[in-house]
Amino acid sequence: MKRLALLLALLVTTGVALATDVRVGPQGPGFYRLRMGADEVTALLDGTHPFLADELLTHIDRTKVDSLLKADYLASPVQGSINAFLVKTPDRLVLIDTGAGPLYAGDGGFLPTALLAAGYRPEDVTDILLTHLHRDHVGGLIRNGTMLFPNAIVHVNKADADFWLNAANENKVPKILLPMFSGAMDSLAPYQKAGHVVTFAGETDVLPGFHAIPAPGHTPGHTWYLITSGDEHLLAWGDTVHVATVQLAEPNASIRYDYDEEQAAVSRKRALEDAVAKGYWVAAAHVSFPGLGHIRRTGTGYQWVPVNYTRTP
Questions:
Q1: DSSP string across 189-232
Q2: Distance (Å, rounded) from C-alpha 63 to C-alpha 179?
Q3: Which homologous superfamily is 37-306 in?
Q4: How far apart are CA 22 and CA 35, in angstroms?
Q5: Helix-then-strand count for the chain, H and E
Q6: pTM here?
Q7: Which of 124, 137, 126, 123 is nearest to 94 (CA)?
């Protein structure tokens, strides 16, 4: 009996010690695979960043923002994912956006870890398609000032390159957008020096199976990429939506990071309507990881339908 009592006492005290010694650490490397036709799409998480939705969203009443967030058990600031997407085709490994890298200290820079965890190395990437040149999409191009993806060709809309890689345009944007210039210039510089940057204009096929569609507003050259494999399609829509809970319910709501807020809303509504009508996959840079899903119409707004988790794609 004494031995049993001693054992029970040890179990109780051990349980108490464990209960009072809980540590909540970070998540593991974020990657999620999706099979699309002959292609493999892997969502890569670079990190999460707090969006002050009630301060940054425009063309919507602040109380409406708070109400929509509350309905989804959220409050400002809302943690937004920083997603990039890796597409493995039969002959290429294409990365769409690169995350913030070192430019969002503490919030971003985890894409290389996720990439390795998914079974790939930076030198395996053959092409990088940039939806636009904001810091949280180009910062991951470099590490310590050098090319993180030494074998990749970087593809970018000429309208965005002409704007963000020219310091003379700094007087055309509000203060909140000024850091985007140095971020773009510093991140692309080593690739430009190596002759690894290619620009394109208008709607065009940038690679076999990768169709660029201009979607201006968020930036002058903001671009969607429609990826096709067999009968399946996926639209990588960059920063069409930042805070899904609000902007899907109220598509006119833009954000202060938009270069042209009204044009951004026009592009957003076009993307949402097209996604509903055609039923293709959507890859969203800032919708909660993995940022893969479909769009459903609900009354006057829309709803995000996330990918159904599958352990083996």
A1: HHHHHTT-EEEE-SSEEEETTEEEEE-TTSSTT-EEEEEEETTE
A2: 30
A3: Ribonuclease Z/Hydroxyacylglutathione hydrolase-like (3.60.15.10)
A4: 37
A5: 9, 18
A6: 0.92
A7: 126
Amino acid at 268: R
Q: Which two tokens stand for residue 98?
A: 């690169």
Show the low-confidence residues of the chain (pLDDT under 70). Answer: 1-23
Write the pLDDT tens digit of every residue in 170-199.
999 999 999 999 999 999 999 999 999 999
Q: Are 294 and 275 in contact (CB under 8 A)?
A: yes
In angstroms, the CA 233 to CA 226 distance is 7
Q: How many residues in the chain?
A: 313
In this predicted model, what pLDDT tens digit does every residue of 19-65 receive, in sequence order? Answer: 445 667 788 889 999 999 999 999 999 999 999 999 999 999 999 99
How far apart are alpha carbons 262 and 148 in whole angstroms?
Answer: 36
Residue 305 CB contacts under 8 Å (≥ 6 apart), including other chains: 293, 294, 295, 296
What are 174's two structure tokens? 């509000």
Any idea where the domains of the chain sit in the sequence?
Answer: 37-306
How far is it, in rounded angstroms, from Cα 265 to Cα 247?
Answer: 9
> Cβ distance 291 to 234 under 8 Å?
no
Question: Which CA distances in Å does 256 have to 8, 171, 176, 253, 264?
Answer: 60, 16, 8, 10, 11
The secondary structure element, H or E, covering residue 78 is strand 78-88
Q: Are 163 and 120 in contact (CB under 8 A)?
A: no
